[in-house]
Amino acid sequence: xxxxxxxxxxxxxxxxKETSWVSCVVEESIENxxxxxxxxxxxxxxxxxxxxxxxxxxxxxxxx
Length: 64
Fold this sequence. Notes:
Layout: H1 2-8, E1 33-38, E2 41-46, H2 51-63
Antiparallel strand pairs: 1-2
C-alpha cells in the first residue's frame, strides 16, 4: 500500500513548506452558576468565585 500512496502523491524533499499555525480559543463550559440582580445590574457568579470581590461589588452597586 505504501507504494501506491507514494505513487499517488510523491514527496519532493527539495521543497519545504513553511508550517502555519492557527490560534484556537477554548471557552470553558459553565456548569454551576447563579445570576444576581442588584440595582438593575445582572451579575453571573460561577463556581470558584472570589467571595470578597463579590461582596465589594454588591456594596458598590447598592450605593449607586
